[in-house]
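so my prof wants the structure for this chain in the tokens format not the other one, which i didnt know existed until like an hour ago. anyway here's the sequence
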Amino acid sequence: MTMPTYGNLRIKDRRIILEEVKPHVSIRLKNIFARIAKHQTKQFALPLTDEMCADLMWFMERYPFSMKKADQSRLKKGAKQFRIDRESTEAILLPGWQAPTVAGFRPGYAPNFMQMQAIEMLKRRRRLLLGDDVGQGKTWVAMAAALQKRPVAVIVEPHLAEQWTEEFIVEYTTLTAHIIDGTRPYDLPQADVYVFRYSNISGWVDIAGTGYFSLVVFDEIQQLRTGTETGKGAAAAVFADNADWVLGLSATPIFGYGSEIWNIMRIIDADVLGSWEEFTREWCVMGSANKWIVTDPDALGAYLVEAGCHLRRLREGRPINKIIVNVDYDDSEAERTEDLARALAMKVLESKFGESGEAARQLDSLQRRVTGVGKAKGIAAYAKLLLAAGHPVLLSAWHRDVYEILLKELKDFRVALYTGSETTKQKNKVKRDFIAGRLDAVLISNRSGAGLDGLQKRCHTLIVGELDWAAAVYYQLAGRLDRPGQPMDQITMIFCVCDYGSDPTIMSVNALKSDQLRGIMDPGSGVAETYSDVSHIKLLAEQYLERSKA
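here's what i got, hopefully its the right format
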């Protein structure tokens, strides 16, 4: 007896094409495979991935499709490989898994058990987003992978090229490394690892397009969250598409809303989330200001984990002591800009789309600058409490006006800038001077510290002076201090806020973005309880007042 079929299936150009599907089966198909548009009829296309093969084989147990033997064989092969990969991933993550050794590390150094798990997953999957907590040794995973797959392109933020080369690759391995100089290609010297900056990879796409680099590592891959519309994003896609292995490193791959994860995964594994249209249809809803918001971040995070392309482990230890303090606000700056702010607000509400968008950006920038300037002296007052008691401080801000006020208010202490305006050489000097005790405080830009290592040797207190629209920025800032090498059991993170200007709005948006990041990175974790102990800050305030009386 011949089994009835409910449609035809064929494979073409890495797509699975479903045609002549019975109407009632089409409804079932679109309900299960949400990336298919509800209004779509007659023909449906799905990506040819091992996971999709497994899902379709399951679907066709109930609704068989007619197909050629070659296509049926390909589906079965993919479904089998999906089961093998999932079983092997589960085995790797078991406590009793036996980690192989990796040759090429200098005597006394080797990856730990958790790092070897990540390396093995990369070997099996070939494409991996490693989202381990800050300080868990993602760099060690990259170095171990480089020892097994060469030559390697490591792409880093500009200020981290020397740190990667001198403090990691040369220090801990026998690998040879070369830092790429500029965007104009030249004859590359013989090396195992070539360290690029995100700012210069666009000039090297022709070399990357030849498949010269067997492994590509994207450090702080959140730099690519805006996608291939940018020069660095388009270049990164060329590097990734022509490599055997791709490894993305970041505990915070998204800074805004959850839909940014599509741009990240497009670089790591272009098939896992489908096209942009498929992704938004399956996972997102349009929010305010035309932003795509992931409707169920936990489900998306769980999906990426099950697909084997995302791995994240959290660091154990005491939670960060987070303290929110309300600081005094000087409204004189706000009064001086009131007329301009009112004009921009009117333009936002009344102008055409293009003009309105530009006005909104100007109003946002103005409000945040005014807010920062208005509370700068209050921020400095809290920093003085700590510095006067001999506690080194990492202090974050954003606007140049705010930096200038803080430097003036803290003139009695040794303070240096680590922002977007300093050269790599200047930043490296600030880092060395702070660690050596020649500086009391580092005034760091909110977005200049990702990946920076070493400050934890001297400092355990972070003051967030100006707020950022991206909640992940705070996570990265805290990670400069809350990492291996920190002698204290716990670090303290002080948020200086006010009830005026942009702070209340930014805090409310941060809450939504934080939940998007939490769900995707730590599915099922729930909202973590915030630990806050202000006792030692009160003690410092009492001591400061006592000294003032003397």
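also thought this was worth mentioning. The mean pLDDT is 86.
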